[in-house]
Amino acid sequence: MPDLSMFASSADTRDYPAGHVFFSTGDPGDLMYVVVSGEVEILIRDKIVETVRVGGLFGEMAIIDSRERSADARAKTPVKVATIDQDQFLYFVQTHPHFSVEVMSVMSDRLRLLNEIVY
Q: CB pairs under 8 A, 24+ apart, for 100-106?
């Protein structure tokens, strides 16, 4: 799992109760999230495909390609997340090159996971 601890003390952290829906398939995507505490479920067609835990991120695809959300995300437990908007994302990519590799690693892991589910 990538080390995204640099976001744990971010001023842009928010607390949400279990069951909170961060986004649904088709929603516009203006934020990505890093889980500071708790767990978030990622669902495709109402099927849980991943549980994002502390240090994990979600919502990155819509920040990267400016397209609508491709999955649903909801809090499995009470959760604290750091939010990252597109300007912040671009700043981190430019100033912390390893951040880009960490995001690509997450995306690669998710693609491999979905390949296992499909095949």
A: 102/2, 102/3, 102/4, 103/2, 103/57, 103/60, 103/64, 105/2, 106/2, 106/56, 106/57, 106/60
Query: 15, 79 in Cβ contact below 8 A?
Result: yes
- Continuous segment of H or E residues that includes residue 95: helix 86-95
pTM for this prediction: 0.85
Q: Is the pLDDT of residue 119 over 80?
A: no
What count of residues does the chain have? Answer: 119
Q: How far apart are CA 82 and CA 36, in angstroms?
A: 7
Residues 96, 98: Cα–Cα separation, whole Å: 5
Cα angle value 115/118/119 (rounded, 5°): 80
